[in-house]
Amino acid sequence: MAGKITFTMIKPDAVKSQYIGAILDKIVASGFKIVAMKLTQLSAAKAGEFYEVHKERPFYGELVEFMSSGPIVAAVLEKDNAVEDFRTLIGATNPANAAEGTIRKMYAKSMGENAVHGSDSDENALIEAQFHFSGVEMFR
Ligand code: GDP
Predict the structure, then answer these.
(1) Domain limits at 114?
(2) Which one of 31, 53, 60, 89 has the minimum C-beta count within 10 Å?
(3) What is the pTM of this model?
């Protein structure tokens, strides 16, 4: 039976550092199935829309600028318990606090430039997947 989905982005810092392959390897080795994927770049407007929930936070401007600064990999991943398991795999927001072996511990530079995004709920996973992909681009 099909598992649940989560949405991820490999952020501009990790793409620039040539970590796409290593990060995707780790994701697949951890049991996630890639059901949609593309290399793309967010406009500042699109990045602002994606992170709208953080609009009032002091780092919003910096976040939008960073997320639109270069190409990203957007992907939809399928697995049982996808959202929670992926959050465990990526580790804490601040790589300094991320557990050993997590993607952020291994590849993130800082709190802002932290290599990967992972949805925080099933509801947001669907919203975020549909933000980037149409139905025919998702192979579930
Ligand atoms: P996440 O769910 O672990 O990605 O963390 P949040 O939802 O709290 O924050 C969303 C994203 O905003 C993070 O992944 C970071 O890229 C960025 N961010 C969070 N806190 C800060 C901060 O203090 N400074 C900067 N520049 N970016 C931040």
Answers:
(1) 5-134
(2) 53
(3) 0.97
